[in-house]
Write a structure and sequence with these properties.
It is a single chain. The chain has about 90 residues and is mostly helical. The protein has helices spanning about 5-25, 30-65, 65-80. The longest helix has about 35 residues, at about 30-65. The radius of gyration is 33 Å and the shape is rod-shaped.
Length: about 90
Amino acid sequence: MFTRRKLLWVVAALVLLAALGVFLSGGGLNRYRSLSQGALMLRQKNQELTAENAKLRAEIEALKTDAKVMERALREELGYIRPDEMIFSFEGGP
């Protein structure tokens, strides 16, 4: 018969084997590593988007307050011209 001490060792060994099985299986340690790497990539992407948002907010503020910035944006993005200006369009090229 098993003594209490032997039974404790057998139970401890079974628990250890079960824990190793969970950590080493596809749903254990490998999944943890994969999720950790994914979380790191998401943090980096979040930092990039935060920086881009700050840049866009500054551009919006400049468009609201600076007439030169607004005029440049209108000309470049919408093709606006002043009433006293003329546009020449040449077809073909060298």
